[in-house]
Design goal:
It contains six helices and four strands; from the N terminus they run H-H-H-H-H-E-E-E-H-E. With about 160 residues, it is mostly helical.
């Protein structure tokens, strides 16, 4: 009989494991304290990292179907954990941060931030896929207007697929 291991994906994809139960418990506590409700929180940080990686993998194909809320929501959780100084006492947190950095770098290589939004602290909120369909371009221009209350012309900055 084969048992599910949430750490298996991390080990296979990133060559790293996060097994310290105290660290995982602390992450769960932090999520609860900052009112982060997440269905897969019982396997923090495993599912948080693998789910963020799945979204980033979609960006490799200029995929515009992932919902902005989903992308923002998932990366916002990671932002809270990434910037929590209480976690620095755990060796496992360095592994978490290295995996997160790897995923973020992959995402950043397939997106860009319009110069008008370069000072945004939460960079994923204003990241735009380098490639996209006409529908994506229209959608993202509308989203940028709604989020940031500014008209940003993107059709000449995104490679049409």
């Amino acid at each position: 009989m084969k048992f599910y291991s949430p750490d298996k994906d991390l080990k296979e994809t990133f060559g790293a494991e996060i097994k310290d139960a105290e660290y995982i418990s602390e992450l769960n506590t932090i999520c609860k304290n900052v009112n982060i409700v997440y269905d897969d929180a019982r396997f923090i940080p495993h599912n948080l990292l693998t789910n963020w990686n799945e979204i980033v993998e979609l960006s490799l194909f200029g995929h515009e179907d992932s919902e902005d809320f989903d992308l923002d929501f998932r990366r916002d959780i990671l932002f809270e954990l990434e910037n929590n100084k209480e976690l620095d006492r755990f060796n496992e947190h360095q592994i978490f941060l290295e995996i997160l950095k790897t995923i973020d770098n992959k995402f950043k290589s397939n997106t860009f931030i319009p110069v008008e939004l370069k000072n945004e602290k939460r960079w994923w909120n204003c990241s735009v896929y380098k490639k996209g369909t006409g529908d994506y371009i229209n959608h993202i221009e509308h989203e940028m207007f709604v989020k940031f209350e500014m008209k940003i012309e993107l059709k000449h900055r995104i490679e049409k697929i």
